[in-house]
Here is the input.
Amino acid sequence: MNIATMFFCLGLCFVSLSVSPQVMPDKIPAMAAIPNTLPVAVKERFTQQSLGLETQLRDFRTASGAFNKKTAKDQTDEEYNTVQKMRTDYIKAVKQFNNNLACAQVDDLQNQFRSLTEEMNIDLQVLHNLGFDKTVEELEYYGNLEERQLEEAKHEFKEMLFDGMLISITKVAGTLGSLTTEQVDALNRLADAQGSPSLGNVVADAKDVHKALEILEKSKKVYELADETKKGDMLKAAAKLGGLVAKNPVYGLLLTADAWAVGLVYQSINAVQKVYALTKTVEGDLIILKQRSEKLKKEVDQFTSVKKQLAQLSSACNSVSLIK
Here is the structure.
């Protein structure tokens, strides 16, 4: 094979590999894209380097193109060696650029990792102070559930919420000697939602409170067999009643609870008791709990993403010890 044929093959190798993401020892690697997440100064530095590499690549293409246009008799070993060196120098420069860029991203991701870890530790402590012991691993696991599993968990939480409300209402109502007009009205709504006879007018003695407790006891069994519409009506009625009996507005707030609350009680050993604890929380603490848990969920999602990116960059950057 003459030198022209050899370099023609070299040119083909370049063309076919310039668009390939695979980096092989004998092939020209693609220049890695500069992510927007890097600090401005670092991004500018790599942008300038990439412009220099683009110029270097154009010079190589020009030189190799001019060499390939010549006939075999006009090509010299000196010219071939010059173009080959340009190719080798460019490959070396691109590999170094890609490695440096990967390491710069690792540095940035490590900073994010540390910052997120500090933030999550603070938020986890707040949740711990409010009675919810969760780890980052548990929250990550919940966040990675499939949509079907999430929906099942939400249905489970609603059942636990209803049970927790009944526990709370029953404990308070059992100590009352009478119920107010508002409380009776709310109890009648619950009775109506589950298809039981209502208590009628104002309940004013212990005997009628006992009847109220019977309705509450029956509610749990009815709820388990009810369709979604009926369950929704019963849950709203229980929340209204709970707020009036316990004189605590958190019952109404818990009706708006969604993924944040499910994530807190999900896989808890005593999940029903955890939900019952929510019904005993004061309004201000519940608002803090909701804000912190939603914030923590976002941080956990970012944390998971950072870990994945660090794992992906571990092979690209060979000079930095990654956080595991």
